[in-house]
Structure prediction request, 238 residues.
Amino acid sequence: MNVKDPRRQKQLERLIDRLGLVNPPPIRWDLLDLALTHPTFSPQANYEQLEFFGDAVARLAVAQFLRQTYPDRSVGEWTAIRSVLVSDRTLATIGDSYGLERFLLMGSSAAADASGQTSRLADAMEALLAALYLSTSDFRLIYPWLDRHWQPLAEAILNDPAHQNYKAALQTWTQATSHTLPEYRVQEIQQASPEERFQAEVWVQGVLLGQGTGRSIKAAEKAAAQVAYLSLPPLPER
Prediction:
């Protein structure tokens, strides 16, 4: 279903071209238009519901990507990588690489808010993923262009020098920035799979930085530390 405005239709078609989708299956152009409509442009018809749905689409897409690409990695490692790939920062960076904000209809107040760009792009990306998924009820319109961004990011995480000891890396970071140690809170999960028997949280100065699960307490703590460490900015160079 095309949108009513021919100029908007052409604009949306240019975005699909930018994504590298050649001869794509039928696309719900009306949903794509809605996915790129900010609440400040249309309070009644905007991307908010699609964004909600797109959050789940992004997480499922990443889960399938990780299962197919890294089948031998632990659930804790999958969790840590997923937390980076579906983060606002990553989604916004990917969206920006396609000039997504140029296709986003928004009011003047949002357009003038430079500090809100990351959240705007991340929200629009989730809504875009929802629109593409709902067009075909699968990932045919998503994987061809998104995998090329996820693959190098996942590899970079797995090849990070801290990969083998995220607990130590996190402790180094917290001591350098706040002179404190991470606090781990672990509980056993009843009726869980063996791989997710324990759940750990890591807290620093009353702030929850990461969660993870594992076969043992140590594995769960390592998974939580990995999620926390990968969400932190790098230490400033001296």
In short: The mean pLDDT is 89. The chain has two domains: 6-158, 166-230.
